[in-house]
Design a protein that fits this description.
By secondary structure, the chain is mainly alpha-helical. Helices cover 72% and strands 0% of the residues. It has one domain: Globin-like, CATH 1.10.490.10. The protein binds protoporphyrin IX containing FE.
Length: 155
Amino acid sequence: MEQELQARAAHLAGIREKAEVEMARMGIDAAFIDRLVDTFYGRVQAHSRLGPVFDGRLAGRWPDHMEKMKRFWSSVAFKNGAYGGKPVQAHLGVEGMAAELFPEWLALFSQTLADIAPSAEAKDWFMATAERIAKSLTLSLFYNPALDDPARKTV
Ligand code: HEM
């Protein structure tokens, strides 16, 4: 049992070390994640369509949200378990939330990375990751199987 735990700890440490090396190769470190989250959510707040939707839910709670998002990206990048929340649940019932907002979110994230990412690889890595998560969130929040049912199609 003790040995199993040690082997598991060593395995996890190996995964983290690999992630750290991979991120460092692209110029991604904790300071960049802080800067990315601060810059991106600063722009989200100023965005005419995204801003009000976020603010409706987060007014008075922005500092907590920023901290959470730093832990989220840190855990995705460095596989360090810094974030343990439930993203799908967090997006349920957000007033004004709409599938059409996701491309706008992604465009703003892409522009932010174009402005501040330390390398082209870093930008590509963040975009590929965000697009994957955005797709999964969109499906969880908005997918309606009935719309894919051939029996219901009229054309
Ligand atoms: C139009 C797109 C989006 C909108 C309007 C939106 C809005 C929000 C709001 C209002 C919250 C705060 C929920 C709360 O604390 O009550 C939140 C949390 C969060 N969002 Fe989004 N979001 C969007 C897209 C995304 C994308 C693409 C990602 C990932 C790449 C993401 C990741 C998260 C995470 C990790 C949290 C924290 C969840 C938790 O509480 O543990 N969001 N989002």
